[in-house]
């Protein structure tokens, strides 16, 4: 554990003033009544957590901030800024503290009301994308794209490393008896004892896994790229598979009593499933943008965060939104390229990249004007130092190479998820499409 040094007396008033101003502006932009959508983030809402009392929520965003919300009042209590990159994971601890994990590989612990973390953890060498608290509240687990999960005592001491996944570890959870469960891009679900020994069970599936959760009775829930929610016994034996739609599952949440599962997809659908019966109950109908995060506030209410930068609340008795719901369909910037194979290949990238200047930066920089631009020079985006040092100018050859060998090999230090287009014809179509669609205008 690395403690953050105390702020100097000279800087502290400026920080407090900046925080108060940001909170004031944020509160003015909220939708207003406690039953309405929560507005405040400047980017997609990547992570959500609900405190044990059900009255406060913590959200993390691609805009590099976390926000602590009063759900009763529908207002923001505090804006937390520390991470150099997207806040991918958030957690409310049993003792009232908060945890955030970021694209920068760091984990921060916060005491509500304080403007800086009370402690930070910096062991991970890649983005942190998942956090979980042990059943006894003593240890914090994290999942990272550095290929590891780590478990650290909150009272202090070294983190234990869980290695074995071949690629990104996308999710982490605890079973009620305290075992660790991890889900990876390598299509494996792994169950571990907390001592850091080899996994007691490895389940290999036909698809990369993006999310995992564990129910109060020990059953394990996993979701991945094939749009299927899978249910496993506490020992890793598959019990059921529920298909919920044509697009990848990117987030899961269990109701407090464990009877229902909410599964969110990159296409914006949210399926609510009866876990014991292994059957869908209903779908939540939103505006069609990716739903990156969700959390149950109670048996009767679900909270979701998505690509439209909003936090929405849903009545789990009816499946209807609580308060007004802006239902305007987002503009499809690929509609003008119907039938273009390159546009079809690019559609998987739209969650992270826009094509035009007015589309702005998302999880990744806008691609407007990318041809002829040196790497890591797009305006308004926080690039890693490793990318800034690379000598690459984007053109047909370099973009094609990026998708041939993958971002991890071609642009070491990138925050970009691993994307390889194995078909040479598809790569060529993608490059031709980008050359047309990204011309600055």
UniProtKB/TrEMBL annotation:
Keywords in alphabetical order: Heme, Iron, Metal-binding, Repeat, Signal, WD repeat
Gene3D superfamilies: Cytochrome c-like domain (1.10.760.10), YVTN repeat-like/Quinoprotein amine dehydrogenase (2.130.10.10)
PROSITE patterns: CYTC (PS51007), PROKAR_LIPOPROTEIN (PS51257), WD_REPEATS_2 (PS50082), WD_REPEATS_REGION (PS50294)
Keyword ATP-binding: no
Signal peptide positions (record): 1-36
Protein name: Cytochrome c domain-containing protein
Residues in WD repeats: 38-79, 80-120, 121-151, 162-192, 284-324
Organism: Methylobacterium durans
Annotated GO MF terms: electron transfer activity; heme binding; metal ion binding
Domain Cytochrome c residue range list: 337-438
